[in-house]
Automatic annotation (TrEMBL):
Residues 278-324 are annotated as: Disordered. This is Protease HtpX homolog. Residues 278-289 have a biased composition (Low complexity). The lineage of its organism: Bacteria, Pseudomonadati, Pseudomonadota, Alphaproteobacteria, Hyphomicrobiales. Keywords: Cell membrane, Hydrolase, Membrane, Metal-binding, Metalloprotease, Protease, Transmembrane, Transmembrane helix, Zinc. Residues 72-277 form the Peptidase M48 domain. Zn(2+) binds at residues 130, 134, 201.
Length: 324
């Protein structure tokens, strides 16, 4: 049922794109938009993950350049029964993360330096488990294609006045059509993004808690990320707002309209669901101090004894990380 609903929403997104084409150029514009939408969907299937990673200046890391971060992802992927995804790091002080890729065999996860610096290893594990849940649920392709189409609809809306302003154009609705293309279509595309993303976040929270082994790790991480995201601006996300729904928490600064227009569910509701899950014992409890954490280190050790999560040892804190 979820796949059918998602397919219908993607079809609606394509129809919106074609509708904008019709408003700007009549039947000919609609056909051109259909060809463009089909081409974009095909292109997005193979390349959208690379585009999104490039938009956010993500740099791929490995076991040598980011041992703890990479180890967390590797251990969680093994626990979830997933192929090892490519692991990326984004030099950005806002704590956040996202996953992308057309299928589990070609997936990638990305975290910001702010996430690794502000969160404990357990909380990082909760976040990356959430992103791996998106990979396992095959949400990443849907979310990436949606971001591409939403960006294209917004682009057409921004240029609608130029496309539809001439007297010789084939616009059947005149100035009204231009206004609809400029305002209504991008707003409708945002609503479709919201419908696709909101239900998938709850599902990824639940599965992520099962993968990492403790819902409270993810609940604590969501609380920290949400508070910090409101205080730290993410310039790349602000320049590419169509990708906002891919992040674990809305990265955009204008989050005061969260309850109505955000692509994400309310964070307090997500935390409450995770706390209820922990109270019900729906997921294995975290191992006690002295046990092995999900990334292969001792879960009970003091945080300061751990290597820095982006790969810098204590003696090398003056050196730049692998993103330099």
């Amino acid at each position: 049922m979820n796949m059918i609903r998602t397919a219908m929403l993607l079809a609606l997104m394509t129809a919106l794109f074609m509708g904008v084409g019709y408003m700007l150029g009549g039947a000919g514009g609609m056909m051109i938009a259909f060809v463009i939408a089909a081409g974009m969907n095909l292109f997005s299937y193979w390349n959208a993950d690379k585009m999104v990673l490039r938009m956010h200046h993500a740099v791929e890391v490995d076991e040598r350049s980011a041992p703890e971060y990479y180890g967390i992802v590797r251990s969680l992927a093994a626990k979830a029964g997933l192929p090892m995804p490519r692991v990326y790091l984004i030099q950005n002080p806002q704590p956040n993360a996202f996953a992308t890729g057309r299928n589990p065999q070609n997936a990638a996860v990305a975290a910001t330096t702010g996430l690794l610096e502000r969160l404990s290893p357990e909380e990082v594990a909760g976040v990356m488990a959430h992103e791996l849940a998106h990979v396992q649920n095959r949400d990443t392709l849907t979310m990436t294609i949606t971001a591409t189409l939403a960006g294209a609809i917004s682009m057409l809306g921004n240029f609608a006045l130029f496309f539809g302003g001439g007297r010789s154009n084939n616009n059947p609705f005149g100035f009204i059509g231009i206004l609809v293309a400029m305002i209504v279509a991008p707003f409708a595309a945002m609503l479709v993004q919201m419908a696709i993303s909101r239900t998938r976040e709850y599902s990824a929270d639940k599965r992520g808690a099962e993968i990492c082994g403790n819902p409270l790790w993810l609940a604590s991480a969501l609380n920290k990320i949400a508070r910090s995201a409101k205080q730290v601006v993410n310039p790349d996300a602000e320049r590419n707002p169509a990708t906002a729904h891919m992040f674990i928490i809305n990265p955009l600064s204008g989050q005061r309209m969260d309850s109505l227009f955000s692509t994400h569910p309310d964070t307090d509701n997500r935390i409450a669901a995770l706390q209820a899950m922990a109270a019900a014992g729906a997921s294995p409890a975290a191992q006690p101090p002295g046990g092995q954490g999900p990334w292969g280190t001792r879960a009970g050790r003091p945080r300061q004894q751990a290597p820095a999560p982006w790969g810098r040892a204590g003696a090398d804190r003056g050196r730049k990380g692998p993103w330099s």
